[in-house]
Task: inverse folding
């Protein structure tokens, strides 16, 4: 299904749907909500295709700030303009803010206990697993675009191994991958 076909067959979410959709994402996990955002946007509500999600997430990772909040702003703006750009991230953050404030009070009282420390280590492992699962699903959506794989490898090598500044690596990747996309479109 093309992006244009998807836009025509997908119901346009109203402000209420945006708020509660992103609220469900925000309440689904701590520090690992990106997989839940993908599931809600692509698989459950079908507001985006897997390819649209990957493209929007790439944009949101390029922008300063938390990726999921940037994504909520982009999706909200896409469907409901400025009001949606405000409502979606508020929905994403309202529930977790209340929960974190409650947990801060509990951690202050009981955080030094060994059982609390063990629980926190377990939660960190779950978050890591969720991140790997989401990366696997995103990679599956890129199977037919293998010509962009070298950019992923070069980005990881440049930032993680060679310790080049991330903004420079991102700008170079943007220029190079944009050139490849332009060249491939010109050939079709």
Result:
């Amino acid at each position: 299904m093309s992006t244009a076909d998807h836009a025509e067959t997908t119901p346009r979410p109203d402000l209420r749907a945006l708020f509660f959709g992103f609220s469900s994402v925000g309440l689904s996990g701590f520090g690992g909500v990106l997989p839940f955002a993908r599931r809600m946007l692509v698989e459950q509500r079908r507001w985006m295709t897997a390819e649209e999600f990957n493209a929007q997430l790439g944009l949101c990772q390029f922008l300063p700030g938390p990726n999921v909040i940037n994504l909520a702003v982009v999706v909200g703006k896409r469907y409901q303009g400025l009001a949606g750009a405000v409502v979606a991230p508020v929905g994403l953050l309202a529930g977790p803010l209340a929960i974190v404030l409650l947990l801060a009070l509990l951690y202050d009282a009981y955080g030094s206990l060994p059982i609390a420390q063990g629980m926190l280590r377990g939660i960190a492992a779950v978050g890591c697993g969720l991140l790997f699962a989401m990366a696997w699903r995103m990679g599956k959506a890129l199977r037919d675009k293998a010509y962009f794989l070298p950019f992923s490898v070069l980005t990881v090598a440049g930032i993680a191994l060679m310790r080049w500044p991330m903004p420079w690596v991102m700008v170079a990747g943007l220029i190079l991958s944009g050139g490849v996309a332009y060249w491939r479109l010109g050939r079709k």
